[in-house]
Design brief:
six-stranded mixed beta sheet, alpha/beta, Rossmann fold, 14 strands, four-stranded parallel beta sheet, single chain, transmembrane helix
């Protein structure tokens, strides 16, 4: 039926109403012709269907709600400060570095993460105050070996001792009062080793590790002079009680004046002694140990067995050193069995103790993680090159650049470049290598970057270069300089392959934390690149630069690098000592 709309609104409205009434009448007529039983059945099925859908919908909504609550609780929960799950599954973002993979760059996978490093770390720390302690496992390599059960037990025992005898505890206050009164402390069950902050950051990390191992071996509590920046660089390593000396410690103002001529210096005491041996001597309650590189033969008596027995008298030992003296501890007979039980693999001392002690403070951890994700995470392989130049004058030096290139190319760490090749458009995903350069100068980074920018690689690999900072000269006294230095040590420790410079404690720290055997660049002479340019390290252990060459029993000089198979001369310093696990490697 054709309906024509009138120009008058009222008539249009009436026409629409008539049409609607006719439609409703037709609908009621059709319904009256239907079987009432069918109508009942249809209504019943309709209601039942709506009920089932409603129940299923409510069930789905409930499950979604439970899932959301669970996810939120996992993400935002704050574990109690006295408990950390040792082997939890966590979501870890990982960049896909497989060139043949069809998956996108960023993947999120579930991985079991050993936050406590096979029991090396205590579970009694809170997580918020130190982000790096339980999160560094997502960035650094797995431990090179499993720590011995005896080492784990010894660390838990030390933590109990530190809690019982640490600063401001009853035992500490009692011993301190005896120190103030200049009386004997032999009745105290707590003895202490005080470490004086001294030298550059790399040296401080290595010497503090040495001091801690000595404290473990002698059942002493290690207390640390924070210096100007130690508290800004590192988290507290022990639960509940600080390892930092308080500002009101009586001897704190005297630390800077301690030297070989101090009246309580052990070397001077032994030099001035009129007794034929140390068996009947009585030491003062405070003894200063001068183990700096300029120490003399009397100071070096510290490494003799009979002198260690004598030092047990003093409740307070104060140590200043710039040496990683751990290898010589392995030559002291009374420590031999204990050290063998602690470290069945001899080249793991700094690797284990460094990962146990040194957790970057949150501000430093931010520098590390932001740089890692921005520049290193996507690479198929990460290569670290640490360049330390001892030559005077303004660099960069051509012979250093030649040596770095010679080493990395001969050892197949970096691919060759070909000047005559035409650039070929990449097909699919290519393997990429991210090269992390650390140096006080930006010149080496710029020259290496330009070589691989201006020339294609023969392998088709994509090589990128990064350098976090270039401070031009060492600024040990500046906190931000040391924060950047610590961040760069940790970033180097996350690389897959490492090249380090001879004599550099910066490189020693990086290789030890990462569990890496680096290629060591030989020290150049007369500004000439050495040939060969580098060699692979025997172990990941640092080198002791100024060891004693003295046989305590025979009381004569001896080559201490040939006494036992696991203490050998260093690759980069012929007179130095280092620990190795396989002497025939």
């Amino acid at each position: 039926m054709n309906r024509t709309f009138n120009s008058y609104p009222d008539e249009n409205y009436a026409n629409v109403r008539r049409s609607m009434r006719q439609t409703e009448d037709d609908h009621h007529k059709n319904l009256s012709d239907k079987d009432p039983h069918c109508d009942f059945k249809s209504n019943h099925e309709l209601k039942f269907g709506f009920s089932s859908i409603r129940v299923m919908g409510m069930f789905v909504v409930l499950m979604m709600f439970i899932s959301v609550i669970f996810s939120v609780s996992v993400v935002f929960r704050d574990p109690p400060s006295d408990a950390v799950i040792e082997g939890s599954d966590v979501w870890i973002p990982q960049w896909n570095s497989d060139p043949d993979s069809k998956v996108g760059d960023l993947q999120t996978v579930i991985q079991p993460v050993d936050k406590l490093l096979s029991g090396l770390l205590s579970a009694k720390h809170g997580v918020g105050s130190c982000l790096s302690r339980y999160n560094s496992v997502a960035y650094q390599h797995k431990l090179a070996y499993e720590p011995s059960s005896y080492l784990i037990s010894k660390l838990r025992g030390y933590e109990d001792l530190h809690k019982r005898c640490g600063v401001y505890t009853e035992s500490y206050n009692k011993t301190l009062e005896q120190l103030r009164s200049n009386g004997s402390s032999s009745s105290s069950d707590c003895k202490y080793l005080l470490w004086i902050s001294f030298s550059g950051l790399g040296n401080r990390i290595l010497t503090l590790t040495s001091a801690f191992l000595y404290a473990l071996l002698t059942n002493r509590v290690l207390l640390v002079d924070p210096g100007t920046d130690m508290a800004d660089l590192f988290c507290e390593p022990f639960p509940e009680v600080s390892w930092f000396l308080p500002q009101d410690f009586p001897l704190k103002d005297d630390f800077s004046s301690f030297n070989q001529n101090s009246p309580n210096c052990y070397g001077k005491i032994m030099k001035n002694s009129i007794m034929p041996d140390s068996s009947g001597m009585i030491l003062p309650s405070v003894v200063y140990l001068h183990l700096v590189h300029d120490y003399d033969d009397d100071d070096k008596l510290f490494f003799c067995d009979q002198d260690q027995a004598l030092l047990q008298q003093s409740p307070w030992l104060v140590m200043k050193t710039d040496n990683y003296f751990v290898p010589s501890l392995f030559l002291i007979p009374s420590f031999e069995k204990e050290l063998n039980d602690l470290f069945p693999n001899k080249d793991t001392v700094f690797h284990f103790l460094g990962r146990y002690l040194f957790h970057p403070a949150n501000s430093v951890w931010g520098l590390i993680t932001r740089y890692y994700h921005a520049y290193l995470a996507r690479a198929s392989e990460r290569i670290g090159i640490q360049i330390r130049v001892f030559d005077t004058g303004t660099g960069p030096f051509q012979h250093i650049l030649d040596q770095v290139l010679d080493c990395t190319l001969k050892e197949n760490l970096l691919p060759q470049t070909e000047r005559q090749m035409y650039a070929i458009d990449p097909v699919g995903n290519q393997k990429s290598k991210a090269v992390l350069i650390t140096s006080l100068s930006a010149g080496y980074f710029e020259k290496l970057r330009d070589i691989y920018w201006e020339n294609p690689t023969v392998t088709g690999e994509i090589i990128s270069f990064y350098q976090p900072s270039h401070e031009e000269h060492q600024q040990t006294e500046k906190s931000i300089h040391n924060q950047k230095a610590l961040a760069e040590m940790y970033l180097l420790s996350t690389t897959d392959v490492l090249v380090t410079s001879s004599w550099s404690t910066f490189g020693y720290v990086a290789q030890g934390l990462g569990g890496l055997k680096p290629w060591i660049l030989y020290k150049p002479e007369n500004r000439t690149a050495p040939n060969p340019p580098c060699r692979r390290a025997m172990s990941m252990e640092p080198c002791f630069h100024a060891p004693p060459f003295y046989d305590c029993k025979a009381k004569k000089g001896v080559d201490t690098g040939k006494l036992v198979p696991h203490v050998r001369h260093c690759e980069d310093m012929s007179w130095g000592l280092k620990l190795v696990d396989d002497p025939y490697d």
